Structure formats: C-alpha cells, structure tokens
Amino acid sequence: MTPVLTFFAGLGLLVLFGWYFATDVGLRKRLLATTLVMLLVAFSIATIWPPKAKIQLGLDIQGGTSFLIRLMGGDKEVNKGMLDQAVEVIRKRIDVFGVSEPVISPVSNDRILVQIPGLDTAKIQEAREQLSRVAKLEFRMVFPDNGDRLRAIDEGKEVIPPDYRIEVYKMAAEENEKPREERLLVKKKADLGGNHVSRASAGYGNEGWEVSLSFDAEGTKKFGEITAANVNHRFAIVLDNIIQSAPNIREPIYGGSARISGRFDEKEARGLASVLENPLQTPVSIEEERSVSPTLGLDSIRASVMAGLLGLAITLVCVLIYYRLPGLVANLALLVNLVLLIGALTMFRFVLTLPGIAGIILTIGLSVDASVLIYERLREEMALGKSLKVALETAYEKAFSSIFDANVTTLITAAILFWKATGPVKGFAISLMLGILASLFTALIVGRNALGWLVDAGKVRKISMLHLISSQNINFLGKGFLACMCSLALILAGATSFYIRGEKNFGVDFRGGDLVTLSSPAKIDVGQVRDALKPVGLADASIQESAQSGKNYITVRSPLNTSDKVEKQIIQTMPNAGFKVERSERVGALVGGELAKSSLVALVLGILGILIFVTLRFELSFAVGAIVALLHDVIITVGVFSLLGRELTLTLGGAVLRDFSLAIIVGVVVGTYSSIFIASPIVLWWTRARGKSTSTLRREVTQKPTAANPLAR
Questions:
Q1: DSSP of 59-73, one letter per residue?
Q2: pLDDT of 558-590, one tens digit each?
Q3: How far, in whole angstroms, is CA 520 from its chain's centroid?
Q4: Which of 49, 193, 238, 407 has the fewest CB atoms within 10 Å, measured from its CB?
C-alpha cells in the first residue's frame, strides 16, 4: 500500500473508533465494531502479504554479524558531525564485502552499530580488522606533466618512475552519464599527512559546491611549499589507499586555508569534507560483537515457529473444550489478535527477531488470560440467576477493571524495557507492547460483539462451560505466615547458590567476555572439549552442551578476545567431530557493566511505575503488596536459575529460548503463588498497621475500579 493510501485508511479507522466509543445504541455499536474488525483484519493482511517480501528479519534469524563500535576521541570530544562522518567511512569499508543492505547507524553519542547480514563466518576476522583499523589520509602529488608520462608508459616508451605508481581514480556518475575512471601516476609516499588537517567543511560558493579546509601550523608551512612548487599540477587526496579526489593547484596557498572546487554536487562535497576531517584517525574500539550463522538462524526460527504453533494449537483446543461456545469466540479473538499484531509489526517496519517471536508467543497467553477473566465472571453472574444478556453485559463491565489493570502494568514494564534495552531485546518489548494493545482490543471489542450478536439474535439462549475446580472456601490469608516462611526458605537457598556461583550466574552480556557456539552432527563429549582447551590454558572455561533440530551444540564462554583461539584449538584437536562455528559473541567489560546498570535501572523504574499506578487505581496498601510480591517473584526466579546452573542473559536465541521459557514457567507458577499467599496477606497486614478496618479496605476495592470503568456507562 502507498503511504497516501495508508494515511487515509488509518484516518478512516480512527473515525470509526471514535464513532464506536461515542455511540450507545446496541445495534449500531455492534455494526460499527464488526466493520472496524473486518477492516482492520483486511488492512493487516494486505500489509503482511506476501510475508517473505514484507517481514524484515533480524540477524539472529537470517544470520549475520553485528559490531558495536566506540570512537575513542581522547582529548577531542566526539561530536555528532564526527559520528556521522565515521558512519560514512565505515560504510565504504563494509561495501568491499559485497553484502546487501548493511545497517550502519549511530546509537549514542560516541557509538556506531554495524549490522552485516549474511556475512560468512570466515570473513568475521577480516571485518573486525577493517572496522578497527585507523583511517589513513594522505596528500600525494600526481606526476607533474599533465599525463604525458603515463601515456608514454602505456605506449611502452617510458617506465614507471621508482617513486610513483599507477592508481585508478573512480569518479561518481554525473546526470545521465556512466561513472568515469581515470588512471593517474601518483607518488607512493605522501607529501603531506592528513593529521595536519584541523577542519574541513562543505559549502556553496561562486563556482558551486566546494570544500574548505584548514591546516595546523606545520601543515600550513608544508602545504604552502608544496603548492608553490606545483602550480597548475594536480595532487591526490587518498583515504585508505583509495583516491577520493584529484584537484588542480591554481596558485600557491600560504595562509593555512584552501578551497577545493570543481563539478561537485552537495553529496560529493560533503563526502570529500568527511574524508578530509578524517573521523577515524583516532583509534576505535569494538565494544560488542555478535555473530549467528544462517544455518543456526534457520534452525532457531524453525524451532520457535513450531513451538509457537504447537502452543497455539494446544491453547485453542483447551479453551474450546473448557469454555465451549465462549471458547470458540475466544479462539476467534486470539486469531484476530495475532493477525493485527503481525500486521502492526510489518506496517511500522519493525525487524522481527527471536525475542520478538517470543513476545508474540507470550501475547497468546495475554489474550487468553483476558478471555478467562471475562468468562469466569460470566459464570458467576449466571450462577446468581441473571438472564444471559444481563450476565454477559455485567461480566464484561466487572472484568474490565482486572483486564485493564493487568495489561497497563505489563505495558508500563514493556515500555521501560523498550526504553532501556538494546538490540534484539527491543524486539521483545515492541512485540509485547503491540500484543497488549491488540489483546485489549480483541477481548473487549471482538469477543464482546461476537457473543453479543449471537445472544441478541436468539441463536444462543444458554451457555454451559466445564467446571473442573469446584468453589471451595479456603482460608488463604490464614496460611499467609506459613507461605512466607516457605518463600523465605526458597529465597535463602537461591541466595546461597547465587553467592557461591558468583560471576557464573551471569552471561557475557553482563560480565563481558567471549562466547562461541559450535555444532557437530555427532554426539559431543564435553570432557574431550575441555581436554582440547588445556594446551591454551582455557580448560576451566564454561562449557555447555545442547541439542536442536537434530544437531549437537557446545557453547564455550571464555575471557575477552579468546574465542578465536578456542575455535581454532577445538577444530584442530577434534577434526573428526566436524565442528562448524554457528554463533559467536564478544562483549567488552565496559558494555557489560553498562548493560547490568541499565537492567537494574529498568527494574527500579518498572517497580516505581507499578507502585504509582496501583496506588492511584487502588490505594497504597495494594501497591505495597504488589511490589513485595513482584520482588518475591524476581528473587525466586533468579534463585531457581542459579540452583539449576543457568545463566542470566539479555538476548534470546536458539537453545537460549529454553532459558526464556524456564523464566516464564517459574514466573507464572511463583507469581500465582505470591498473588494468593504473599500479596493478599501483606495488603491486609499493611491496612491493619495503618489503623484501618477491613470494611474500609473492601469499600476501596469496590468503589475505585467501578468509577474508572468506561464500560460501566
């Protein structure tokens, strides 16, 4: 779809949204809702199709390498101009690899993210050297005879002077013309180094676009001598042994400032100014490096998609069996939710990563959770003897508060995660945020109107649902002290394990270092791998074994800048294993520390956001109970990871998705437990400690959510 069509389609949908919420008439409201849903689904399918051409895949899926480069300015502060110029220099270096659509962009005040899709693992070392190499800018004189000597050499009448060599100057294509090349006889040794250029800028002068440059004191003297001796001759401006320009010297230049003019357009002038400013003259540091082979990316996405489809199928069947007709409506809402979510991701051109797929899978649970809250409330209303129509309306009105509050608190944490996260983790946050919005829409509009149509048309007069767990009066609050003691014991066990393991609790994301994953078609003996690393002094490295899609993998975590040695040693020592490098990561200590700090900041901000929201929606005692339960869940989840020997990492991919799944499983189990046995008693104890009665608490619970419910109107 064209941008104009997309704009007007979005405007029309916005009008329908406003009309829907402004109308109170039942039939008109349902017609608007049905129209809105059908248009959104059609718009999303048109945006997605064909998926291979429309959905952009991240490096962890399509394979490739990413580098996070930091400019080391030293005494000179790195500014935006230097950063933009460095991007252009790096882009020219990446072009030599012939890859399609590399991503090279600034990500902070002094860092540049370089993503190279499809880069062969054998070329990673070459790419690393190209990116970290200091740029070399030189001024070299062209042989001073206006090309006569070069023509004689071509005719075999002369030889190349010993101090010169023939170089090719590739000029940009002019309008309606092909790119031109010119052979020049250029000095081998520089007449003036680029380190003497103090400033360069592009501007529009009397003869069109031109480049102004200034030299330092020594450069001013040398440049004056060179230009005085070579009037009406050319000099070559060379960056990394490639001629960028070859202007003519019109007159001696003694003032330390010069202008280079010619048939420049704006892009060429700014490019030449970028070269002359030489932004990579100072050293650069590769702070982070991540690489995934296309094979591993394909295996990972295949496993992730299969897991997602299997989870979706099980969810659809269980919901249908348990809730029957309402379950069928919930399944319809879930499918619409997924279409809208993928459509939104595609429309806004978000890159799909493995963490993004994990976020989509998590959205399935969020969508079903909203339907479960509604249908359980519907069961309670029908048990009171209300008619189906009244029970349905009441169920949606009363369930709205729980659905809204649960999704807003999750949205707060997802937004903070997107703000503070880096790389693929942002993909998870984006999928989660859009999934929350889509699940709210489908649960409260799609599901409600689908059931409303059936009830109003008289097609459904009675709804029956399974009820496997009968209502029981369990004194949960009376068991609060015992539950707290059990939680305390589990926390102490996890904390002890965490203390004993120390740095081994964290992956390379946090502590810095190298990680390399190798695959083999045969079973891998970890002991043999450890023996192979003994000669290079890395036998104590962390080695983990895993399997996926019929392949066996080992992951070795070692100190910084040792992964190349690990790869070489394992492959040479165990040639029969058929090892192939599938993934590698390198994270500097500085980046690891910053990631740990930003993660803690994100956690604190998330807790603060939930504290404020819950206090405003209910009251402080509920906020305290929620925060204590949240900290309880986080601490126990981290403790379980430590007890099971798992590592805390930021990215998810391949076998690491199992750690993500483990965190979700533990979080759900512990979260359910803490909501009942931890949060509730704390709310009650906190209320009593402040001198309030339980009747006051009950009044606050029932009044505030009802007043804030727009569906109650």
A1: HHHH-EEEEEEEE--
A2: 888 888 889 889 999 998 888 888 888 888 766
A3: 29
A4: 49
DSSP string, 6-51: HHHHHHHHHHHHHHHHH---HHHHHHHHHHHHHHHHHHHHHHHSSH
Please, what is the angle between helix 589-617 and helix 388-420, to 10°? Answer: 150
Contact 586, 507 (CB under 8 A): no
Measure Cα distances from 605 to 458, 612, 634, 638 in Å. 50, 11, 15, 19
Which residue in the block uniquely carries the two structure tokens 């729980």? 402
Phi, psi of 29 (to 5 degrees): -65, -40
Helix intervals (H) in 133-213: 148-154
3-state secondary structure at position 248: strand
Amino acid identity, position 103: V
Angle (CA) 92-94-95 rounded to 5° is 65
Amino acid making up residue 453: W
489 to 295, 477, 628: CA distances (angstroms) = 44, 19, 16
Q: Is the peptide bond before 50 cis (omega within 30 degrees of 0)?
A: yes
Phi, psi of 125 (to 5 degrees): -65, -40
Length of the chain: 713
Percent of the chain with pLDDT over 90: 8
Q: Is 173 helix (H, G, I), strand (E, B) or coil?
A: coil
Q: Position of tokens 């806004």?
A: 348
C-alpha span between 301 and 654 (Å, rounded): 8
Q: Is the pLDDT of residue 709 over 70?
A: no
**Of the candidates 651, 559, 653, 650, which has an alpha carbon nearest to the alpha carbon of residue 596?**
650
By CB neighbour count within 10 A (0-12 exposed, 13-18 middle, 19+ buried), where does 453 fall? middle
What average pLDDT score do residues 229-258 get? 85
Stronger pLDDT, 261 or 449, i.e. the higher one? 449
pLDDT tens for residues 138-186?
889 999 887 888 889 988 888 899 999 998 888 766 666 777 888 899 9
**Are the CB atoms for 223 and 229 separated by under 8 Å?**
no
Identify the H or E element spanning 263.
strand 257-264
Q: Which residue type, as a one-letter code, is found at position 18?
A: G
How many degrees, rounded to 5, is the angle at CA 464 between CA 461 and CA 465?
150
Q: What is the dihedral of CA 688, 691, 692, 694, to 10 degrees?
A: 30
Which amino acid would we find at residue 549?
S
> Which pLDDT does position 25 carry in this prediction?
65
Q: How would you class 557 by CB atoms within 10 Å of its CB: exposed for 0-12, middle for 13-18, buried for 19 or more?
A: buried
